User: Fold this.
Amino acid sequence: QQKNLGIEGTPPELSMYLSLLEHHGLHRVDGDVVKFAEPRNRKQGSLKPVYEYIQQLLNSASGTRLSLEHVYERLRAAPFGLKDGPIPVLVMAALVESGADIAIYEDGAFVPHLTGAIAERVLRGPSKFEVQRFRVAGARAELFQELIGPETWASGKVRSLLPLVKQLVRLARDLPDYSRNTRSVSEHALAVREALLRAKEPGPLVFTELPRACGFEPLSDTSDLPKAKLDELVARLKTALRELQSAYRRLLNTIENELRNTFSLPTVALAARKELSARAKQLMPMAVETQLKGFLIRAADDAIDHDAWLESVGTLLGGRPPATWHDRDREAFAINLAQVSRRFATVEAFAVERGGIQLAEGTKLLRLSVAEPGMQDHERVVAVRASDQKHISALAEELRRLVAGQQDISKDAVLAALAYVARDVVAELSATDESSSEEKRP
Assistant:
């Protein structure tokens, strides 16, 4: 995109540039743009026939790779009989001008950018290079247009697969380890992720592997895909990509929900964290067990943002940072959380009994315990929040009216009945916590 290809002074290559590229219009100024283009028509000495022949050879490489050494040999032969000097210049000009559809391979590996260093290696050793044309036509063009956006397509600024492929592959490779390994996504998302992480060539990725991952047949340059089917393919692909991008967010949400359910916290995230932090701070002086103390320290940390807080707790209970988890680490997290919560409940019950818990914003902790001879005690600490007080008071009033209407039984019998109800509710909650932990065991 530079005048004279950026050649300064009067080196020998300037003569080659002026006599071949500029003179025949292979590299020229078009308005405000300096670009490679096909040669100008001339009555005598035109390079257009040989340039069109090069394009024919490149066109023959649709669906298969073509060695540049083979192109050189064909240009040396009749009817053109070109010398070795101009051949690489003409071929390179054709490759640059056709860059939107041409993929280049060096020693079998895809070359994403035709840099100056690669161009030098092409000139010195064409036998190491192959090319392949991927026609963006028919259903391929329609898919490409939908993926890059109709406005971008209409502008004509993007006609190459490479920017799109780079963006898609980078999306997959920049995912956290968890998102690259988890199986807790849909089958389409799994297949799309696999295709992106194993991508080696742009054309097959966009027109073969990604459609196949979304449940469609590969698209050729002559495929005719109805608009409804094309829209379905694009929708499936975009849904799969969004699912992969949001997988880690869903993992953090899972950690948050399990903390909320295990410790009976408020539904609002920040309120739940604030309450757990306050309760943890109250228990830290009494905790002696290593895992519980570590959990209390992390739960009480108010200095980090919410996601970092969830990651901190997840790292302790999962054994590694959540971003690096595999699915089995989610199971380890749930099991360790259940164990920590039982120790937490024991220490908290002791603290409430001693009157050592003071929480802000009108939240009070009540310790419920029902003991029967020869039976395991049923015990639970429950948080009574100001936001729940209206509903608690209304239910308590109903129970009082019910109790007041029981004239035929003693107050002790009423208390026993309430104790049985409390025992059963506590047992039910404890069983729910335990079954949730068991379901996560491998």
